[in-house]
Amino acid sequence: MKKIERLLILIAVAMGAAFAPLSFGDAPNHGKTSAGNYLVYIGTYTSEQSKGIYAYRFNAATGQFVPLGLAAETSNPSFLAVHPNHKILYAVNEIGNFQNQSSGAISAFAIDSHTGN
User: Long-range contacts for 75-78 (Cβ within 8 Å, ≥24 apart)?
Assistant: First the structure.
């Protein structure tokens, strides 16, 4: 795992950041795969090193996070939520300007049930 990825996880945990557990596929067990793995999304403040929302596979038995990479490129996603149908990921974007107005934004992303991206 790269240094920046470890730092992002530590920051997210320390801040109680947006973890949005989601299962792979359409498993009816509400976020947990048959192997005990969860899909976790972490929103980051964007910069040259960070581009938005990252996906990780979390193994509940071992406590291991496996990085899956950038799930969505979006500005400063500070709060994440997964729709109850597990097909849409919502992000609150902390930005000072949206479409030339002082504001924030809400983004929505379709979730691929096989890859999590």
Answer: 75/46, 75/105, 76/43, 76/44, 76/45, 76/46, 77/18, 77/43, 77/44, 77/52, 77/53, 77/107, 78/17, 78/18, 78/43, 78/45
